[in-house]
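Project standup — Tuesday

K.O.: blocked on the structure for the chain from last sprint. Re-posting the sequence here as requested.
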Amino acid sequence: MNQTLKNLKKLHILGMLSKDAKLEVEKRLKERLETYASEGNSRISFG
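H.V.: unblocked you, prediction finished:
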């Protein structure tokens, strides 16, 4: 599956979560993105 479809599926799943859970997930994703960016890692994976 290509990355765009994966991202869309992830967004759809996020949309179904409760607001609090969604905020928590978004916070974690943002922290992970910042960590990868600060490490200069161009390959980002969400697990």
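K.O.: great, moving the ticket to review. The chain has a mean pLDDT of 76. DSSP finds two helices and no strands in the chain.
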